[in-house]
Amino acid sequence: MIQTEAAVAEKAASEIIDVSVLVPVYNEEGNVPVLCERLLAVLDKQSWKFEIILVDDGSKDNTAQELRAAAAARPEIKVIRLRRNYGQTAAMMAGIDHARGETIIPIDADLQNDPEDIPALVAKLDEGYDVVSGWRKDRKDVRLKRTLVSRVANSLISRVSRVRLRDYGCTLKAYRRDVIKGVRLYGEMHRFIPIYATWQGARVTELPVRHHPRVHGQSKYGLERTLKVVLDLMVVMFLDRHFTKPIYVFGGFGAFSLMLSLISFVTMLYLKFFKAVSMIITPLPLLTAMLFLTGVTSILMGLLAEMIVRTYFESQDKSVYLIRETLNC
Ligand code: UDP
Ligand code: MG
């Protein structure tokens, strides 16, 4: 199902144009008209062939009507409406699948990002980068708490992923088509696109962008998003270091656990036969059994993960390497 939808989208996207601006939209009735106006004001001034793809992520307010009106006024404005609220990442994924632009630029619908920054991002990309990441240098979110949490999260992501950016969460970024077309996103992972891109050999840089307080509607997120981001980060880290060899992680942990189990077992025997301490009064038998089971289970899970990884690559004809260029082939 997902595959056929992506294939249909890919076909519709076969004619390439210069720039696709992608907007995930969820309950933003107050922002849509202004957003379209401001995007068009910027884009009409450029010489690019462009499109604006608005993805309605199952809005429950008047967003759909506003989007319809906007699309009726200008053929460059395209609207994709999802069946229900899938979340910002899925909405962006739908937009990416339909985008025909050589350059793809996601932006928030709430005008916290500034459409006026788009030409600068494109200019930076043209200097020879594959990803230009917007950095909200002077962030205007109401709660200080949030800015602080995001700062910690950003430095954590930067350290773990070894891709040095200062603001992963900023939606406004510019991507060259080939680095973003292949990515599949899950959960809150749109913020990790620059990381995936780097792994695939992309040149990534960042550029300060403006940030404004939200005027209409309200933020869809609270602090619980941070937990999701941290969990996603663990997945990303796993995928980065061990994706092709999960047995090294599970097996390593399993072997460690078995070793502890053995130590516990030997200690237990030693105490019994040399010190005449009964096995029952120490926690050692239980510890031995638990560590042994944990070890065996981990190794078995590692083998299972190896099978899944093979299915992943082989069933979808995915390659474990990506080619930048070929000559005379
Ligand atoms: N959004 C979406 N689906 C959701 C939640 C948010 O498409 O389930 C969109 C929302 O309309 C906005 C963008 O994602 O364009 C960022 O959301 P928000 O402004 O609430 O996030 P914040 O700026 O507070 O981090
Ligand atoms: Mg916002």
Model description:
- It is a single chain.
- The protein has 329 residues and is α/β, with parallel strands linked by helices.
- It has two domains: 16-238, Spore Coat Polysaccharide Biosynthesis Protein SpsA, Chain A, CATH 3.90.550.10; 247-315.
- The protein has helices at 2-12, 32-43, 63-73, 88-98, 118-126, 144-161, 177-180, 193-199, 224-242, 246-275, 284-315; strands at residues 17-25, 50-56, 77-81, 101-106, 131-136, 173-176, 204-209.
- A seven-stranded mixed β-sheet has the order 3-2-1-4-6-5-7.
- The protein is elongated, with a radius of gyration of 25 Å.
- The two termini are 34 Å apart.
- The model has no long low-confidence stretch (mean pLDDT 88).
- The chain binds uridine-5'-diphosphate and magnesium ion.
- Uridine-5'-diphosphate (UDP) is lined by residues 24-26, 28, 57, 85, 87-88, 91, 108-110, 112, 219-221.
In short:
With 329 residues, this protein is an alpha/beta fold.
**Number of separate domains:** 2
> Which regions are unreliable across 5 or more consecutive residues at pLDDT < 50?
none
Corresponding CATH architecture of the largest domain: Alpha-Beta Complex
The CATH topology of the largest domain turns out to be: Spore Coat Polysaccharide Biosynthesis Protein SpsA, Chain A
Q: Tell me about the largest β-sheet.
A: 7 strands, mixed
Write down the overall geometry: elongated
Binned strand content: 5-15%
CATH class of the largest domain: Alpha Beta
Helix content bin:
40-55%
Mean pLDDT: 88
Structural class comes to alpha/beta
Roughly how many Å apart are the termini? Answer: 34 Å
CA gyration radius, whole angstroms = 25 Å
Largest sheet strand order: 3-2-1-4-6-5-7
Q: What are the distinct ligands in this entry?
A: uridine-5'-diphosphate, magnesium ion
Oligomer: single chain
Topology pattern, helix = H, strand = E: HEHEHEHEHEHEHHEHHH
Number of β-strand runs:
7
Question: Helix tally?
Answer: 11
